[in-house]
Amino acid sequence: MATDITIRETLDDLSCVEGKAELIAGRIIHLMPSGDLPSSAAFEIAVSLRVHSKLTGHGKAYADGVGYAVAELPSGRESFSPDASYYDGPPPPNPMRFIDGVPKFPAEVRSENDYGPTAEAEMAEKRADYFAAGTLVVWDVDPEVRTVAMYKATSPNQTIIFRAGDIANAEPAVPGWRMAVADIFAE
């Protein structure tokens, strides 16, 4: 009789993976690369956050690809890799490794497969994980309709939608930072 032995993967295993991935329930979940519009939107957000952090001398902005390690959450999640993020905590002991902790503010930009009921449920679960880990604000950026949905840890089921012509914020996670929605989707 054959026995299935499942080996639980770790953050050390995740650090050896090529490409973007997250660790959930002891499994490495590979994330698809995104296309032109989602990547451009994420980059614009990261650049704006970087300018803000340099001007204020607070926090640090990260573009796509950074890994945040967290103590295992009830969902089994042990890491996040947002499309853009703002972190205002201690640097990792080894700057070549993941950041220990969560961003105060991550932006998750939808790719072409991030639509439909299953994707909506997965995105809601990830937001819940962010809040359980200590994140203050999460953006759900939708390149197709060119909107930004903001969720706050203090009211996670309430959505604030920013549209073309609006100036979006991530208060209280990134104090004083503002970004025009049109600039996120600038071509």
Keywords:
187 residues; alpha+beta; 6-stranded mixed β-sheet; tt1808, chain A
Care to describe what's here?
This protein has a single domain, classed as tt1808, chain A, CATH 3.90.1570.10. The longest helix is centred in the N-terminal third of the chain and has 21 residues. It is an alpha+beta fold and 187 residues long. It is 25% helix and 28% strand. It is globular. The chain is built from four helices and 13 strands. The strands form four sheets. It has a six-stranded mixed beta sheet with strand order 3-6-8-9-10-11. Strands 5-4-7 form a three-stranded mixed beta sheet, with no helix packed on it. 37% of the residues are buried.
Assembly category: single chain
Q: How are the strands of the largest sheet arranged?
A: 3-6-8-9-10-11
Which class in CATH terms? Alpha Beta
Termini separation (Å)? 59 Å
Mean pLDDT: 92
Major sheet characteristics? 6 strands, mixed
